[in-house]
Amino acid sequence: MIVGVGIDVVDIARFERSLERTPGLRERLFTEVERDMAGRSLAARFAAKEALAKALGAPAGLRWTDAEVARAEDGRPDLRVSGTVAAAAASRGVSRWHVSLSHDGGIATAVVIAESE
């Protein structure tokens, strides 16, 4: 059963300028594995984290680094959650995530579906 759906879009150039202007932003928003990725990939991952929060109903207290967008063996994006995000997901009965990322025309977008058994 679908628990929630979230979608978000990010202007890639604006996001890259924010990363340049605020040196600590990479550490606040991204896991160690994600931090060295290209700007458009980071923008898509940030959109996914925003979409994930929306799919959970935007509860207070989520830490950005408690969600990581990794690549599954088959190449699809895969959400890995821990800490605050895992706790919020568990309290809502979320047992599976679906995520789609895209970037084109200067915009990064992500859709996240939270599903329960």
From TrEMBL:
EC number: 2.7.8.7
Named cofactor requirement(s): Mg(2+)
SUPFAM superfamilies the record matches: 4'-phosphopantetheinyl transferase
Positions that bind Mg(2+): D8, E50
Purpose of the protein: Transfers the 4'-phosphopantetheine moiety from coenzyme A to a Ser of acyl-carrier-protein.
Protein's cellular compartments: Cytoplasm
Protein name: Holo-[acyl-carrier-protein] synthase
4'-phosphopantetheinyl transferase domain ranges (all copies): 4-96
UniProt xrefs under InterPro entries: 4-PPantetheinyl_Trfase_dom, 4-PPantetheinyl_Trfase_dom_sf, ACPS, Ppantetheine-prot_Trfase_dom
GO MF: holo-[acyl-carrier-protein] synthase activity
Keywords tagged on the record: Cytoplasm, Fatty acid biosynthesis, Fatty acid metabolism, Lipid biosynthesis, Lipid metabolism, Magnesium, Metal-binding, Transferase
Family to which the UniProt record says this protein belongs: Belongs to the P-Pant transferase superfamily. AcpS family.
Domain of life: Bacteria
Reactions mediated catalytically: apo-[ACP] + CoA = holo-[ACP] + adenosine 3',5'-bisphosphate + H(+)
Residue ranges the record marks as coiled coil: none
Transmembrane segments: none
